[in-house]
Write a structure and sequence with these properties.
single chain; 223 residues; mainly alpha; Arc Repressor Mutant, subunit A; Four Helix Bundle (Hemerythrin (Met), subunit A); 72% helix; DNA-binding; transcription; GntR family transcriptional regulator
Length: 223
């Protein structure tokens, strides 16, 4: 194992063992390096690497702290990586969406508060009668993000959010080239919203599957 990797692993062990908790400040660099049997350079590289993936927060003039370790922070790195997708991998991202989003939608039907359900309907009502493709896609992203948050599972919500970028272009392509795509999207959104409001998780899951699968099937034919 490389020296820097060993340093990363030791800091990770301090966090996973509970020796360092979210929000805790790390010991001074010299003290921590001596304690872990590492050079200060190796420790510095490890801290820099862990800061890049939001495990540590380096505050100039103050010290280095463990972050909150919330899922949205830790999964930001994945969002950064998936932004490098190629067009031929979009189908793979849509396949993952087809697994995750119906599950999140079913959970939202059980866990969303009445106020959140009203807000979901308000998102749909905010869409103009004759939206542009860009307006529809923006509304689509808001709609699905709200449902993911309503699932009550922050990890699932963060995973779905990280997949939004790679599939946005496919949604725009479909809206521009497939006749009736915008009307289909609006209708499916209404059916999903109604199923959530009625607290019918199986129906909500089914409509979410149809919704994502529609984009996926269109892209398969197009490619």
């Amino acid at each position: 194992m490389a020296v820097t990797d060993a340093a990363i692993d030791r800091i990770k062990q301090m966090i996973t063992s509970g020796e360092l908790a979210p929000g805790d400040r790390l010991p001074k660099e010299a003290d921590l390096a001596e304690r872990l049997g590492l050079s200060r350079n190796s420790l510095r590289e490890a801290v820099r690497a862990l800061a890049l993936i939001n495990v540590l927060d380096v505050r100039q003039g103050d010290g280095t702290y463990v972050t909150s370790l919330q899922p949205h922070l830790l999964l930001e790195a994945m969002s950064f990586v998936v932004d490098f997708h190629r067009d031929d991998t979009v189908l793979q991202f849509l396949e993952v969406r087809r697994v995750l989003e119906p599950a999140a939608t079913a959970m939202a039907a059980m866990n969303m508060s009445d106020e959140d359900v009203k807000e979901l309907r308000a998102i749909l009502d905010a869409l103009p009668d004759e939206p542009t493709v860009e307006e529809m896609v923006t509304n689509d992203l808001r709609f699905h993000r709200h449902i993911a948050a309503g699932s009550g599972n922050p990890v699932l919500c963060s995973l779905i959010d990280s997949l939004s970028g790679p599939t946005t272009r496919a949604r725009v392509w479909r809206g521009l080239t497939q006749e009736g795509a915008l009307d289909d999207t609006r209708e499916q959104h209404v059916m999903i919203s109604d199923a959530i409001a009625a607290r019918r998780p199986d129906v909500a899951r089914a409509w979410a599957t149809v919704h994502v699968a529609g984009v996926e099937e269109w892209l398969r034919r197009t490619l």
